[in-house]
Amino acid sequence: MLFYPATITLSNRTLDFVARLIRRHRAAIGSRWRRFTPGRQALLVLAHLRNGDTYQRLASGFGIGLATVHRYIREVVDLLSAVAPSLEQAVARLTESFSNYALLDGTVIRVDRVRHQKPYYCMKTRHHGVTLQVLTDPYGRLAWVSDGLPGSVYDLTAARHHGVLDTCRDAGLTLLADRGYIGAGDGTITPYRFWKKELGPSYKAANNAHAAIRCRVERAMATLKNWRVLTRVRASPEQVTHYARAIHVLEQQTRS
């Protein structure tokens, strides 16, 4: 078997943050001894999230068993996911920052085939996946990541399911979204659409202005998918939610 060195494109600050979280958790549960120190366990988890390294590769590289790798990763991912902001907290922070609008979009995270395949098959992307709703500030920085829903669920249906539209409307926060949210009602601005005829110059100008602002939400999508574990999730579809929220927390730590 061949071995090679690898790097993780993250700072020591991120490693220290995760290690402190693990250390507090071990003290809280009264864990007396572990084979890995908190720093070593944090490095293992970051290698999985950032580089997308499989359990088998991590087990070989760190010299531990597959079950231990699985247990260590799930433990830390759940810890990170638990401190991710809720929708209400995210909307409150956006309104407190004097922003009168936010950006909303959805993305489909690819997963392996599951037993009940049909609900998870997305016709738009032509593969099985889990759909996530993402809310960002006007600059495209992540503010909130939703629970995962089967890939066949449309963006507007998912937004209504999570209560994003009503929560933002009640807070006086205007949403900018793409054509997938047409019909969302008051408080959500979507592009004009045309059917069998061209739009007039004023409508085209409005769509161009809308696209120039809304394109910043792609920054949030790139932020999520820059963590290779979301390239194709080989765990249970329910784990996509925990992965995405853990990544959100780590990105917030990087910005702070």
TrEMBL record:
Keywords: Hydrolase, Metal-binding, Nuclease
Residues in Transposase Helix-turn-helix domain copies: 37-82
InterPro entries xrefs: HARBI1-like, HARBI1_dom, Transposase_HTH_dom
Domain DDE Tnp4: 104-250
Top-level taxon of origin: Bacteria
Keyword Nuclease found: yes
Cofactor annotation: a divalent metal cation
Transmembrane segments: none
Protein name: Transposase
Organism: Lentzea indica
